[in-house]
Design brief:
Layout: H1 2-18, E1 25-33, E2 38-46, H2 54-67, E3 71-80, E4 88-89, E5 95-96
Length: about 100
């Protein structure tokens, strides 16, 4: 019984260490600036922990935009760094790519 427990502990530890870290992602967004009104479509790279949802990405991007005088309107898409170039699928399942 002790050997089984030792084996399981070793196996779980190996799996935990082998798990990939959260990858950075590229977030496409729309923002605005008032007086005079200006609209912007842009992209920003954010850390992996902010890539899980639009709300998390917005939380990471909005303060950076605000520091530059912009107000975040919406998150358009979230793409992982390894698929951000060339043909890819974003988290919403939409396809995109080169032309």
């Amino acid at each position: 019984m002790t050997r089984i427990a030792s084996f399981l502990t070793a196996a779980l530890t190996t799996l935990a260490l082998a798990a990939p870290a959260a990858a950075d992602c590229v977030v496409a967004f729309k923002a605005k600036r008032d007086n005079p009104l200006k609209l912007q479509f842009g992209t920003m790279t954010v850390a992996g922990d902010a890539c899980g949802s639009a709300a998390a990405a917005a939380g990471a991007i909005a303060p950076q935009l605000a520091a530059q005088g912009w107000t975040l309107l919406t998150i358009v898409s979230i793409k992982t760094q390894d698929t951000a170039k060339g043909g890819r699928k974003d988290k919403g399942g939409k396809t995109g790519g080169g032309g």
